[in-house]
Amino acid sequence: MIHAVYPGSFDPIHNGHVDVIRRAARIYDRLTVAVADNPLKPDASFSIGERLEILTEVIHGLPNVQAERFEGLLAEYMRQAEANVIVKGLRAISDFEVELQMAHLNRQLNPEVETTFVMTATRWSYVSSTRVKELVRYGADVSKLVPAATLRRLEAKAAAAGADRVVRTPDAPRSRR
Questions:
Q1: Which of 14, 51, 91, 168 is catalytic?
Q2: Catalytic annotation on 9?
Q3: Domains of the chain and any CATH numbers
Q4: Which end of the chain is more exposed for a tag (fewer CB within 10 A), N or C?
Q5: DSSP code per residue over the chain
Q6: What is the mean pLDDT of residues 45-64?
Q7: Is there a catalytic annotation at residue 175?
């Protein structure tokens, strides 16, 4: 049985993530979506608990997929989880350069682990959590970029912060600068 781990911060989870999850779930016997705090990304939109709640909703219906939190080094988490494959989603060549270095480091830290790369579907290749957060900050429509569970949470956060809405409908007036 091959247990794979798809690690990331998933803040927020977007349709590119969902694409990789669904495709990896078809390849591997068991897939764990491992959610971590990324100290290089201090502007978290959601807590780890909230991200896990969203992921639980997103992976509903995928019987071989689970979501859980992890801390520390991925190579060590792989030992603890008794997993043998790391899944990384790639959107562009620039992702490959970074992920290749990480794959080599993880292999040095845990020689029992292999890294596989899943190319994100072309229609999601431009989507990143950073871009989604930026669009939300400016009130842009992100409904086509994120799953419904993420959109509901983004809307709730916007409402709690006093914003009228997270998404702008196509007929909404645009601000002028």
A1: 91
A2: no
A3: 3-160 (3.40.50.620)
A4: C
A5: --EEEEEE--TT--HHHHHHHHHHHHHSSEEEEEE---TT----SS-HHHHHHHHHHHTTT-TTEEEEE--S-HHHHHHHHT--EEEEEE-SHHHHHHHHHHHHHHHHH-TT-EEEEEEPPGGGTT--HHHHHHHHHTT---TTTS-HHHHHHHHHHHHHTT-S-SS--TTSPPP--
A6: 96
A7: no
